[in-house]
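Annex B. Sample input.
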Amino acid sequence: MNLPLPRRVFLMTLAASSAALATHAQAQSLVDEKDAQAAALGYVADAKRVDVKKYPKFVAGQNCTNCALYQGKATDKAAGCPLFAGKQVAGAGWCSAWAKKA
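Annex B, continued. Sample output.
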């Protein structure tokens, strides 16, 4: 016999599932600057360390938080980027794919 789930059990299950998803999202690791993709794009976790000789188009003030590809809020310390699937970039970071946020 299939009895409907009591509302309380449903809400507790929903809360536990939400917490697990939030924990998983936060558990994504940061991109390692030595990663092949990161190195190819000149990614650095701190835009103050950009090699301006190698990347002359870099302008002071550019960082991941003001890039169109950054998937977080400007106040987030780290967030996703489609260039680094499954990993997060530092908000203060930069790479050569930087594009001005609209």
